[in-house]
Design goal:
Elements: E1 2-6, H1 11-22, E2 26-31, H2 38-44, E3 48-51, E4 64-67, H3 76-83, E5 88-90, H4 91-98, E6 104-109, H5 114-127, E7 133-135, E8 147-148, E9 157-161, E10 166-168, E11 171-174, E12 183-186, H6 200-213, E13 219-223, H7 227-234, E14 240-244, E15 250-254, E16 260-264, E17 267-272, H8 279-294, H9 299-306, E18 317-322, E19 325-330, H10 335-349, E20 354-358, H11 363-366, H12 374-377, E21 383-387, H13 400-404, E22 411-414, H14 417-427, E23 433-437, H15 445-459
Parallel strand pairs: 1-2, 1-4, 2-3, 4-5, 6-9, 6-12, 7-9, 12-13, 13-14, 19-23, 20-21, 20-23, 21-22
Antiparallel strand pairs: 7-8, 10-11, 15-16, 16-17, 18-19
Length: about 450
């Protein structure tokens, strides 16, 4: 089958393209912004990419058009497809029908931690010899790739990051209802995606749709400390359910450093020895261990696997050290994730100074819905530098400086990237940690900061 993917350079659609190619399909695609690293990764797979959404692309005559959720009515190629009655389907639906059918799907859902938990779960199964396929919204360092059809040998298991964002302009259900998970992790649930959900209850409804798709022989792995998830379960469930968290069936006990013991119904069943910091990562790990047990991986083996887990790129990733200043990249963009990331770094570095550099570019943050939550989320940082433009484009549409004002003199907002870089590098001192947080490329700010710091160090 020849499929042509609209919106191919997004993380999910790019991963879908790789899987489709690996499965033997002919794959082409287009996007508004075709540039590295996604473009080079796809082209290396022999996938032809086209810049833009020109209607003339119908001349490719694919068997099917696969539509990403970045595509809306008015898109010239989409309008041509509709006018001519050509066959099309959403990315998640194609994924469910052509890649996931007849496989044991382990889906990881939640407002936070989907990527990291999916990577942990995939690595546990790999370590245990299950050779899973996976599609993850990041690059797990243990694998070096974000998607694969299967491992070294044929496998029935597939781990997928299960997003609650809507499927396509013609299908407003959450993506995860298309995956038909047999094992489903519900990691946490907060209000997010203000551009498509009016309130938390609307998201809870979508999560219950996911619960409804899990078969009777399946299993739900649910954070028992989350009130919103408790309300989801109260709506009804039809499969086994194991709760994790404080006082739940699956629990943990922190040991020296970042190590922790894992308990199931009060019985010690493994210890994870690792360097990842933060309570959120321990909860992610607990969920992954519980989910792996559903497919037969013993908890002690899963704990052993996680002791060799190398995390995911853009999750507290050290990009470099220049002049004694460490520059760290993190994907955090929701206030809860920002607070967790900053406090986790604080725990790790002690009294060293943290310079937080934030770009609020997610759809929710651009709307200003959660701007009042920013100051408390950044309380553990010594200095805060906000960037109020979106990678050189229009300003975010609300007063970032005003939102950060409760932080006093330690916070400032910038609308010019060179000015931001100058301010951060001028303030940075040896021993400092510069924590960059954004869910986008942020204009390559990480390397630009390192370049300036290197030049300053050389001059000194």
């Amino acid at each position: 089958m020849h499929i042509h993917i609209l919106g191919i350079c997004g993380t999910f659609m790019g991963g879908l393209a790789v899987l489709a190619k690996e499965a033997g399909h002919t794959v082409t695609g287009c996007d508004a912004n075709v540039y590295p690293p996604m473009s080079t990764q796809l082209e290396a797979q022999g996938i032809t990419l086209i810049q833009g959404f020109g209607a003339e692309q119908t001349a490719l005559e694919p068997d099917l058009y696969v539509i990403g959720n970045v595509v809306s009515r008015g898109n010239p190629l989409m309008e041509e497809i509709l006018n001519r009655g050509l066959p099309y389907v959403s990315g998640p639906q194609w994924m469910g029908e052509h890649i996931l059918r007849q496989r044991w799907v382990l889906a990881v859902a939640g407002t936070h931690g989907k990527t990291t938990t999916s990577a942990m779960l995939a690595w546990i199964l790999e370590y245990a010899g299950y050779a899973p396929g996976f599609l993850i919204g990041g690059v797990p360092r243990n694998f070096g790739i974000s998607a694969r059809l299967q491992g070294a040998h044929s496998s029935d298991f597939f781990v997928i990051e299960a997003d609650e964002y809507d499927t396509a302009f013609f299908d407003k259900r959450s993506k995860f209802v298309h995956y038909h998970a047999r094992t489903a992790i519900l990691n946490n649930l907060e209000y997010d995606h203000a551009d498509i959900f009016p309130d938390l209850r609307a998201i809870e409804t979508q999560f219950h749709h996911l619960v409804r798709t899990v078969p009777g022989v399946g299993r739900l792995i649910v954070n028992g400390n989350e009130e919103a998830l408790g309300r989801v379960l109260e709506r009804g469930r039809w499969s086994e359910c194991e709760l994790f968290g404080n006082g739940q069936a699956w629990s943990l006990e922190l040991q020296e450093g970042e190590a922790f013991d894992v308990y199931f119904h009060g019985k010690l069943c493994g210890r994870v020895q690792w360097e990842l910091n933060g309570a959120h990562n321990r909860m992610n790990a607990l969920a992954a261990i519980a989910a792996a047990r559903h497919v037969g991986v013993q908890p002690e083996v899963a704990a052993e696997a996680l002791s060799a887990f190398q995390s995911v790129k853009r999750r507290m990733e050290v990009r470099g050290v220049e002049g004694g200043v460490t520059v760290i990249d993190d994907f955090a963009h929701h206030p809860t994730a920002i607070e967790t990331t900053v406090s986790g770094l604080r725990r790790r570095v002690g009294n060293a100074r943290i310079l937080a550099v934030l770009e609020p570019r997610s759809n929710t943050m651009k709307l200003g819905t959660m701007k009042d939550a920013l100051p408390p989320s950044l309380k553990d940082a010594d200095l805060v530098f906000g960037y109020g433009a979106l990678e050189g484009k229009d300003a975010i549409g609300w007063d970032l400086a005003g939102a950060l004002a409760p932080l006093g003199e330690k916070a400032a907002a910038y609308h010019d990237l060179p000015a931001l870089i100058a301010a951060v590098t001028s303030a940075a001192k040896p021993g400092d940690y510069v924590l960059v947080m954004s869910n986008g490329g942020f204009g390559g700010v990480h390397q630009k900061l390192l370049d300036v710091l290197k030049a300053r160090s050389a001059a000194a």
